[in-house]
């Protein structure tokens, strides 16, 4: 089970309850009243635990597992060992996520304001919100209800945070409007001035950055990521975006809904990602581009041109993935064709 | 106009005042006493607003714009729509920057020390400086006048900060001397021990890092960037350098004046950049190199050798940009020459 | 000498004492009672200072140096200038590190708890530990003896920190067990939820991240690096690992003993590095791989497959370094073979 110093377990739950959570069907012969009290991986699970099978690679582990129950797809049911109850669904990982969330629910937010927090008298804080030690909340800021503001977070003047958003320790927010139900992890910086200056032989001259950062509902921002405010237009993070750790988002960038930005990727100023774009780890997108809906940018790719909707690109400079595969094949031939002069 | 929750507007200003700010000439026929109260982009600006044209791509938007005034180059004057006053200069972006700075001046620093700040009695703080909540200032530190020290910033023993420097929230400074008029954004870490250790089969042995970080006047350091102190020599950031977010600068690195380091780039230990070098996003420079004055390192380039002054390089390993263009062309041919066996 | 605002010098020491520290032999004719009071580089050292020679490139500087003493290898002894005492060892850098550590010992930790620190009454803090201003320590946390907890660090509920570990300012720790004698630099985030969610057309569904981060003894973690907790298994950082600044380590990653991760490198989820792997700057390793003992991943390499023990790889996608050298040669030929149509 998960370390009780960090996680609090609920339950146990009956198999029929798990089936409902997972939107799954209980296999014939399983006892709907049998109790399950924990989750575990296939290879270590025991009778009181539930596991899941989402990937054919683990079919053998499934067949040998001692788990009392398993969330699995219908086509794998016949490989289940004797005595294992199945929770049958087309989406076992999703089903498992629901069960795990029920067994290990997030700790509820406990309303309160730590005595060392510095909340400006003109700031508004909604009911049910927890404000940790050392927090600073600036003038005219508006914090919603049921929010959690972690220790030493700094929330600047005028910032708005929607209901149910959780902000980690040591976060710095300014010049931004944050939606509802967001998760902003430790060390994130949102709203700093964009990297905007006039650059000529006389030296650099800062250009005022007069926009904001708008973070829509349900966005997750990973630890130590940075999002700059717009220069005039706003920087926009669409609803449900998932941003990993150490990601950089420049001024005026617009992310559509449900984009995924994996760790250490970066999006330069004024680029627009349409909905559901995936940017893999350490990839970079240059400024003023449009990346079409559902495009996928491979890890470490360097995107210098617009990418059409649905296209997968790879390489630096980035090209369609099929072309990159051919190029990589060509490279492999060059590596093997040694000592052929001047080819 | 900019969101008044975050920005305070000054003005209005008369056209003749704007012309002086922008070091521009007012076009013939324009009323020098007409008032302008805001900035806006060409396509949304109205009669009371000033815009700018810096790029031929926007000539059409310029010709159709309803802006009351526009900062523009002399050669574009004949495309201006009727009724638009022109502020004519060879450097419109620079002129615009000056006007925008006057219309939206940075909030003045308000002298004061928050009661929750912990300032060592041996530290010296200049007049006009603002010290935010939760700030820590160590023994014998010297903070200049008119500085702003953001909430929860931590300034170590002996650190020096020059007049007029602004330090963001959650910044950590140690073992460093910071110049005047710098901007150090949220989450920056300056002065940590460099990554120096003796490495052999017995294990690693830390080598004391006995240098400092010297940050000269007018430097900007972006959110969550890190600059390590020297091992013996100092790490030096030359006057007027512009450093973006999530940039890494190793021990003993020397940046000349006016270098630009775009986000997620990194400079390894003991490398020297001469004046006005530009390092684009996600580029990396290995240790112990010299990058000549005005050299330009393209995004994601991996620089393994010295770069002569003025040269532009690209690729990993990096090569002169013309060579990289040829290599990229060769790659495109390989991608197209499909199914040719073993070429 | 090192800036006394930041470093406190001990000593002086006699040459015979230095020889013992450095595990070196004093050269014939040197006065074992001569006193040395500082360290300095070969080219600036004077009679009261000790330097070192670890690299043939500096033989000329060695031959001209005015240092009173130098740590050097036996084969270079005959190049020493008259009057220089030698401390002879096969490992001069290691010997120098020991001497420098004695001359500039780390400041001792001064037991105490700042009045502004917020330590939960159920937390346990060992003797000799210093807790800085603005620190938060959560319920049931266990902090060892002789630890230093820097200003504004946030230590979550249940976190364990071993004896003698030093934690920098603005660090955020949660869901983790930290070993003894670790150094965790400013701005580090350990224990945030991994980047785990079920992703399908219905939208994203967070999968609870029920593991921890286990950091073994003697680990160093550089400024603003991030280490996510496991999804079920733990994320493990083996004893003695050296992690530089702005490094990302995903959930379930396992690092063996003594791995070195240079700045801005990233390890994706569930990948295992065996002992003594070196990951150079800006390199990335994709998820679910095994990197064998002692493998070396070059700067900016993009590792998509398992790497056998001892192998060096380079490139994106990464290949054995010899192959990459051939590929780079082939690229150079392509760059030179200009204007050959369609080859």
Question: What does this entry look like structurally?
Answer:
Three copies of one chain form a homotrimer. Chain A has 343 residues and is an alpha/beta fold. Chain A folds into two domains: 91 residues, MurE/MurF, N-terminal domain (Udp-n-acetylmuramoylalanyl-d-glutamate--2,6- Diaminopimelate Ligase, Chain: A, domain 1); 150 residues, Hexapeptide repeat proteins (UDP N-Acetylglucosamine Acyltransferase, domain 1), CATH 2.160.10.10. Helices cover 12% and strands 28% of the residues of chain A. Chain A contains four helices and 40 strands. Chain A has a twelve-stranded mixed sheet. In chain A, strands 9-12-15-18-21-26-29-32-35-38 form a ten-stranded parallel sheet, with no helix packed on it. In chain A, strands 10-13-16-19-24-27-30-33-36 form a nine-stranded parallel sheet, with no helix packed on it. In chain A, strand 22 and strand 23 form a beta hairpin. Chain A is flat and about 80 Å long. At the A-B interface, strand 22, strand 23 and helix 4 of A face helix 3 and helix 4 of B.
Keyword list:
homotrimer; 343 residues; alpha/beta; Udp-n-acetylmuramoylalanyl-d-glutamate--2,6- Diaminopimelate Ligase, Chain: A, domain 1; UDP N-Acetylglucosamine Acyltransferase, domain 1; 2 domains; 12-stranded mixed β-sheet; 10-stranded parallel β-sheet; 4 helices; flat
Number of strands of chain A: 40
Low-confidence stretches of chain A: none
User: How many separate domains of chain A?
Assistant: 2
Mean pLDDT score of chain A, rounded? 96
How widely separated are the two ends of chain A? 60 Å
- Under CATH, the homologous superfamily of the largest domain in chain A reads Hexapeptide repeat proteins
Write down the oligomeric state: homotrimer
Helix content of chain A: 10-25%
Largest interface: A-B, 60 and 58 residues
Task: Give the biggest sheet of chain A.
Answer: 12 strands, mixed
**Structural class of the secondary elements of chain A?**
alpha/beta
CATH level 3 topology of the largest domain in chain A? UDP N-Acetylglucosamine Acyltransferase, domain 1
The number of helical segments of chain A is: 4
Radius of gyration of chain A using CA atoms only: 25 Å
CATH class categorisation of the largest domain in chain A:
Mainly Beta
CATH architecture of the largest domain in chain A: 3 Solenoid
């Amino acid at each position: 089970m998960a370390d009780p110093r960090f996680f609090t377990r609920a339950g146990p739950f009956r198999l029929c309850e798990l089936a409902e959570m997972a939107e799954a069907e209980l296999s014939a012969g399983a006892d709907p009243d049998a109790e399950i009290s924990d989750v575990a991986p296939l290879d270590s699970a025991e009778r009181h635990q539930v596991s899941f099978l989402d990937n054919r690679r683990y079919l053998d582990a499934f067949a040998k597992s001692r788990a009392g129950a398993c969330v699995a797809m219908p086509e794998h049911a016949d490989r289940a060992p004797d005595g294992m109850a199945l929770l049958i669904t087309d989406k076992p990982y999703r089903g498992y996520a629901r069960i795990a969330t029920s067994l290990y629910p997030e700790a509820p937010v406990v309303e309160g304001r730590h005595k060392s927090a510095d909340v400006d008298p003109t700031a508004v804080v909604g009911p049910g919100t927890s404000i940790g030690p050392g927090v600073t909340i600036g003038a005219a800021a508006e914090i919603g209800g049921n929010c959690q503001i972690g220790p030493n977070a700094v929330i600047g003047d005028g910032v708005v945070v929607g209901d149910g958003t959780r902000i980690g320790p040591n976060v710095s927010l300014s010049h931004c409007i944050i939606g509802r139900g967001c998760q902003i992890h430790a060390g994130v910086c949102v709203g700093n001035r964009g990297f905007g200056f006039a650059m000529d032989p006389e030296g650099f001259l800062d250009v005022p950055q007069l926009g904001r950062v708008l973070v829509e509902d349900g966005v997750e921002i990973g630890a130590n990521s940075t999002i700059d405010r717009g220069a005039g237009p706003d920087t926009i993070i669409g609803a449900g975006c998932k941003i990993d750790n150490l990601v950089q988002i420049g001024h005026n960038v617009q992310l559509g809904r449900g984009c995924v930005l994996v760790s250490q990727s970066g999006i330069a100023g004024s680029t627009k990602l349409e909905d559901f774009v995936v940017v893999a780890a350490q990839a970079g997108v240059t400024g003023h581009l449009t990346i079409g809906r559902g495009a996928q940018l491979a890890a470490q790719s360097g995107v210098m041109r617009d990418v059409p909707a649905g296209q997968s690109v790879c390489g630096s400079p980035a090209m369609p993935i099929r072309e990159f595969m051919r190029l990589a094949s060509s490279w492999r031939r060059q590596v093997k064709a040694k000592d052929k002069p001047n080819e």
